[in-house]
Amino acid sequence: MSTVRRSIDELCVDTIRTLAIDAVQKADSGHPGLPLGAAPMGYVLWQRHLSHNPTDPRWPDRDRFVLSAGHGCMLLYCLLHLTGYDLTMEDLKSFRQWESKTPGHPESFMTPGVEATTGPLGQGAANAVGMAMAERVLAARFNRPGHTIVDHRTFALVSDGDLMEGIASEACSLAGHLRLSKLTFLYDANEVTLDGPLSMHFSEDVGRRFESYGWHVRHVEQGDTDLEAIDDALVVAEAEAEKPSILIVRTTLGYGSPNKAGKAEAHGSPLGADEVVRTKKALGWEHEEPFFVPPEALEHFRQAVTRGVERQAAWEHRFEAWAREFPELAREWRQGLAGELPEGWDADLPRFEAGTKDATRSAAGKALNAIAARVPSLFGGDADLAGSTKTTIKGGGSFTTDGTGRNVHFGVREHAMGGVANGLAYHGGIRPFVATFFCFSDYMRPSVRLAALNSLPVIFVWTHDSVGLGEDGPTHQPVEHLMALRAMPNMTVIRPGDANEAAEAWRQALLHRTGPVGLVLSRQNLPVIDQDELGKASGLARGAYVLAEGSGDPRLILIATGSEVALALAARERLEAEGIATRVVSMPCWEFFERQSAAYRREVLPPVVTARLAIEAGSPLGWERWVGDGGGILGLDRYGASAPGEVALEKLGFNVGNVVERAKALLGRKA
Ligand SMILES: Cc1ncc(C[n+]2csc(CCOP(=O)(O)OP(=O)(O)O)c2C)c(N)n1
Ligand SMILES: [Mg+2]
After folding, report:
1. What's the rounded Cα separation, in Å, for the pair 356 and 358?
2. Is the pLDDT of residue 670 over 70?
3. What is the pTM of this model?
């Protein structure tokens, strides 16, 4: 012990520890080990370093703290409660209960002060990297000589498990490359994971690994007790102006528990009533009553409120002076933060002439550029495929150390790219987009899921959307991806059918702010459909619309998405020539269509027309919903093949002859 027992600091640390084990015990579920070991880190960081205001968790210039090891959430909840956030003792006592503000892992939409939803290990580390990037972008855009409006740090507490995850490696490698010096990781190095000691599976030298990433590395040997060493390490990290920092803090999982400390048993189940008593005793805790907070500890913690209010007031003072001098910038700032779009933001969206051809990826790239010129908060990048995804903001420059560039070169790091995009969105002030091949959406799916869970308005641009991409073959050809993403709650998938729909898709992506949007785009050229004659690309906003009408009441409906829309139109001509009145419905977005009134849906898909054929070069699973019992599905229930795109599509049945044949079969006619 470095100081006399029961200094106010020690009392506060043990207050966190005892509250955490009591809450886990009461819930009869949860993770006591991390809070017991990491309480000193949490305490020193929050009490002496973190710049935050418990009375305004949304203060834009606050420091960000991400508990990447989300299972240790009682640590965070205790810090939030004790420092004065809107999280009561009753909330702590309702840990892990239905609709409580203290869910089993931190959820940013449930609890004030929780910056990111964590639990899937490694994600929080990538989120923190994204937050630090956002800070740099906004600092470059809004600070002016003599006016510092954006100047905050990002901290993440990471565990052994976090650092084993690939996403953390990707994100930290990128953070080192980008020299994100305002980013600090506190590594809870307790050498135990869920199943047992680290010696079972993890023997790398984390310090040397991070040094090679370009991080500043410091060690704290007595992380259970040595508050001053933690404090010193944080001071040094904050002075480091060139590199992100990682503090490798040796701790004991379940510190204080006589029978479980240092063992995996302390990780994920309550200590047990007797062991709670023993632990409190071992900690020198004198109060038998559970959930006891010594008044002097509470008073000490609550100084965070005065400090925070003062800090924010000083910032607001600076902000007002800046806003007076730069009213235009201030307007931009407010819009960006509120997620609003500037007036006329979509005025330059391109229109494409019928009769020409364009791949939806390149049309979308033009739309992106038209929007980026008018929406300064739009910021993003790609995973070493910008030339293919067509997502470069022209003239936007590369994002590097000075923070002025708008194009992030993520390198071949799709998973980190997803997690970083979420971090950019969590931070606020930025509208992020990221791009790669559709097949590699699998490499970012866990982050996409978290974006959906958290209603983050991230735009995922996925090109090379089907076997139609051709020669790269089945490893690169998505099959099940559309349906897999449609199965994700609160995910919006848009697969436009031509260049005009692609531009409209970008418009709708910007307007959709309650969750992520995936733009699924073709590699190959597609004919630009004559929208004036046949319908309106703006119908995309309704998810599905009648693109081509039957001559007379339709007897057959062809429903298609993406590159298959042109195929449906061509098949319709043949069917009409044979006297079969055929309607073509373009259905670029299921989710938008689901949101329409039943009347509109019946108008597009009249129940009397039971002969319906869905055409999509992907898994058929789920199309039954729109085609019904009398309908058919032309999809793909196998992997693709390496061949020129047209050949692959043709051979796999996406040709006019086959569509006509399948359609006639539905009508009970022979081809
Ligand atoms: C992606 C992912 N895989 C697995 C888990 C399940 N899990 C939760 S914590 C944990 C490991 C715990 O070890 P560590 O990260 O060192 O945390 P500590 O026990 O030291 O608090 C595992 C495997 C998870 N939450 N996320
Ligand atoms: Mg551990």
Report:
1. 7
2. no
3. 0.98
CA of 262 to the centre of ligand 2 (A): 9
Q: What is the DSSP letter of 45?
A: I
Asked if residue 435 has pLDDT above 70, the reply is yes
Residues designated catalytic: 414
Rounded CA separation 451/126 (Å):
13
Ligand 1 pocket test: which of 267, 269, 450 has the largest number of ligand atoms within 8 Å of its C-beta? 267
Q: Per the structure block, which two tokens stand in for 649? A: 């599509």
- For ligand 1, atom 25, name the residue with the nearest CA: 120
Residue type, 495: R
Using an 8 Å Cβ cutoff, are 153 and 427 in contact?
no
What whole-number percentage of the chain has pLDDT above 90?
Answer: 96
CA angle 582, 586, 587 (to 5 degrees): 130
Backbone angles phi, psi at 45, to 5 degrees: -60, -50
The ligand minimizing its distance to the Cα of 164 is: 1
pLDDT at residue number 538: 79
Atom of ligand 1 nearest to the CA of 31: 21
Give the Å distance between the CA of 70 and the centre of ligand 2: 12
Return residues with CB closer than 5 A to ligand 2 (ion). Answer: 159-160, 190, 192
DSSP 257-298: -TTTTTSTHHHHS---HHHHHHHHHHTT----STT---HHHH
